[in-house]
Amino acid sequence: MTATNTNLFVRPATEADAGPLIGVLAEAFHDGAVADWLIPDPTDRRTVYYRYFTDAFHHGLTHGQVYTTGDQTAVAIWYPRLERTSTDTRERLESLEAVAGVYAPRFVLLEEMFDAFHPDDPHHYLAYLAVDPTRQNRGIGAALLADHHRRLDDLGLPAYLEATTMRNRRLYLRHGYTAGPTIVLPTGGPIIWRMWRGAPSSGGRTPFPRTLPRRRPL
């Protein structure tokens, strides 16, 4: 367990945290340009998001690193990406169809766009950082970031993420990230800001890596 200040503790999440943290994820991501693009109907969105983030939380526990606070008001899901990875596209499509129903094509497109522009350099990938909307602007998300950043600096590894709002982009810039080329989602979709926090180096931090778009195997 890591103390980040006298009142806030960051710890690994477990299956016992599933209920509260899935709710935090679904509520924190419910509003915004990406949410509107994925699922225009807000009522449908709440239902689908709960299923989607149930899948995301359990996938993070199995394949990544999930952290929360002592009061379960925030969650971060990280994935070590130390070598190039591939996704079973057929299995993922089936999963998204089960989770998102008629909205699955947009979710598939979003994930394919993210994957196509993902850096190949070894790093940790911050897939999700969410704070209970009633507890935002209190430094909780920053504490989760700082906790993992210390771990990455000890390992000499960079971090990568996609910011979906200007507010989030500014947050990550304050925490040592630099912005790379953006992703523009098709069919009238919003802009996504690709962010990189380089590994410590003699010149400061390693720069945003050159990324060539790639296609998933068919």
UniProtKB/TrEMBL annotation:
* Domain of life assignment: Bacteria
Q: Which SUPFAM superfamilies match?
A: Acyl-CoA N-acyltransferases (Nat)
* Pfam families tied to this protein: Acetyltransf_7 (PF13508)
Q: Cite the N-acetyltransferase domain residue spans from the record.
A: 65-200
Q: Name one GO molecular function term.
A: acyltransferase activity, transferring groups other than amino-acyl groups
PROSITE patterns, sorted: GNAT
Per its record, how is this protein called by name?
A: GCN5-like N-acetyltransferase
